[in-house]
Design a protein that fits this description.
The model is unreliable at about 1-40 and about 480-485 (pLDDT under 50). This protein has helices spanning about 1-5, 45-50, 55-65, 75-85, 150-155, 185-190, 235-255, 270-280, 310-325, 340-345, 380-395, 430-440, 445-455, 460-470; strands at about 95-100, 100-105, 105, 110-120, 125-130, 145-150, 155-160, 180, 195-205, 205-215, 220-230, 260-265, 285-290, 300-305, 330, 350-355, 400-405, 440-445, 475. About 45% of the residues are buried. The protein has an 8-stranded mixed β-sheet with strand order 1-10-12-11-13-16-14-15, sandwiched between helices. The chain is elongated and about 90 Å long. By secondary structure, the protein is α/β, with parallel strands linked by helices. Bound molecules: zinc ion. Zinc ion binds near residues 231, 237 and 367.
């Protein structure tokens, strides 16, 4: 029931911290994003004002619905068709890497394409039909066309007895074989006799395709956003991640940015390995990254830390989760999962974490036909979008300052920054946040450090720093502060 789930989630809220109460005084119109040379961009506070996560979630849901019917795989025309649809949203470049290309310890596989597949009974009736669901064929099945008995056929059939109405999703990428997936109920209806089996597919030399979109920022330092795009008709894993990456790319495209952003839409595992092997010279530019997948189900948000565990992106995610007021959970790194496995391999060791909802493999719908359009929800997609943007906003705006008046506290009152009788202090800026920023800004502590230590939301700390800069109490010019305690 799509309609029932839509509209039930509020836009991302600020934390319930007392320091944030001032935001109820209409102060959200203050620009809180800043740069050394003036205002910038990506900013959650502004997004809260002029941005509707639910509408974005609905757009993501529409894209998922459009992509859902396509039979994707780690290579082939389904993947290409998917990437071309994404090109209608963002100027994605398609890369083609020939079969046989060595990529570290792996080799780009043959290209798989499928036109049709079925199992017909002796009456000529399609009892298993690829046209009804592309999950019916084991992904990467070699072509076959033969007749065999039910007993022989059963060697090639896969079901989920615990969920008798669901079709499992199976692959056989690196072992040439063939098979069909079907519901347990379908299997039990098959009668003894001879069956005609046909998989009209090709597995030949061709290419591995992936999509890449690079968005230049003010610096060469990059944020990597990666999602796998190789699963057929499955929504949460992986179309929700694809849709989230597209939405983020579209928004960032129209913002000014400190960081450059690189979006990868790749086949799982082999795609990440292929990109890394072909772009080793670019790896040092990647300062932060997120693998996006499984963000549309109704479960709590999860962030899996990078291999480093204390990378800035890991701390940002922890901070956002801590202040989100929503059920969410941090996971430690493990060498199992999605493409963070490659980005966090020891010879690559990027600061890349994974953002999702319910972790893969821990919900029964995972890799089954039940991961369908009913399993993902526009409001959940929109919420994931808002939280992800909040993380990127912190990355964009985190900076280290120095207190330009470090000997004792500056007199805030004469600047209108402290307890004005009968009114509020400088609109929307927490006094406590100002005190924290002034105290901790010795050129060593970033705004994120200060937010963590004070347990005040980054946005509030950032706003305080902005106002203090405006009043020349905070600066980035370290040389101009000869006596700051450093
Ligand atoms: Zn998967």
């Amino acid at each position: 029931m799509r309609g029932a789930s839509a509209g039930t989630t509020q836009p991302l809220e600020s934390s319930g911290l007392p320091v944030n109460e001032l935001s109820s005084t209409g102060t959200k119109n203050i620009r809180t994003s800043f740069r050394e040379n003036g205002p910038i961009v990506l900013n959650v506070n502004e997004l809260e004002n002029g941005f509707d996560p639910l509408a974005e979630g609905q757009a993501m849901y529409r894209l998922i619905s459009q992509l859902y019917p396509i039979c994707r795989s780690i290579t082939g025309d389904g993947l290409r068709q998917t990437l071309r649809i994404l090109q209608a949203h963002i100027p994605l470049e398609l890369r083609e890497v020939p079969t046989g290309t060595r990529v570290f310890d792996w080799t780009v596989p043959k290209e798989w394409n499928i036109r049709d597949a079925y199992v017909k009974n002796s009456g000529g009736e399609r009892v298993i039909d690829f046209q009804k669901s592309n999950l019916h064929v084991v992904n990467y099945s070699v072509p076959v066309h033969e007749r065999l008995t039910l007993a022989a056929l059963k060697e090639h059939l896969f079901t989920l007895p615990a969920y008798p109405d669901w079709i499992p999703y199976r692959t056989s990428y690196y072992k040439e074989s063939w098979g069909f997936c079907l519901s347990e109920r379908q299997l039990s209806s098959l009668k003894d006799g001879e069956y005609e089996v046909c998989i009209d597919a090709t597995l030949e030399d061709g290419h591995l395709t992936y999509g890449e979109f690079f968005l230049q920022g003010e610096t060469r330092d990059e944020v990597l956003i990666s999602s796998h795009a190789c699963h057929p008709s499955l929504c949460n894993d992986n179309l929700s991640g694809v849709a989230l990456a597209v939405s983020i790319a579209r928004l960032l495209e129209s913002s000014s940015r400190r960081y450059s952003y690189r979006f990868l839409f790749i086949p799982g595992t082999i795609g990440a390995i292929t990109w890394l092997a072909r772009n080793e010279e670019k790896i040092p530019n990647i300062k932060h990254g997120l693998v996006l997948t499984g963000v549309g189900d109704a479960g709590p948000l999860h962030y899996k830390k990078s291999r480093k565990g204390t990378a800035e992106i890991d701390r940002v995610a922890a901070h956002v989760f801590q202040h989100s007021g929503k059920p969410c959970q941090l996971l430690g790194f493990s060498p199992y999962g999605y493409d963070e496995r490659q980005y966090c391999s020891p010879g690559i060791n990027l600061s890349v974490g994974r953002f999702s909802r319910t972790p893969h493999g821990t919900f029964p719908e995972y890799h089954t036909s039940a991961d369908n359009l009913d399993f993902v929800h526009p409001d959940k997609l929109g919420e994931a979008f808002a939280v992800c943007l909040e993380m990127l906003s912190i990355l964009e705006n985190n900076a280290t300052f120095v207190n330009l008046n470090p000997k004792c506290e500056p007199q805030l009152g004469k600047r209108g920054l402290y307890r004005m009788i009968g009114g509020q202090a400088h609109a929307g800026v927490s006094e406590m946040a100002m005190l924290w920023v002034l105290n901790q800004s010795d050129g060593k502590n970033s705004l994120l450090d200060i937010a963590e230590r004070s347990e005040i939301q980054f946005d509030v700390i950032q706003r305080a720093a902005h106002v203090l800069q405006e009043h020349h109490l905070l600066g980035k010019d370290f040389k101009s502060v000869p006596q700051a305690a450093r």
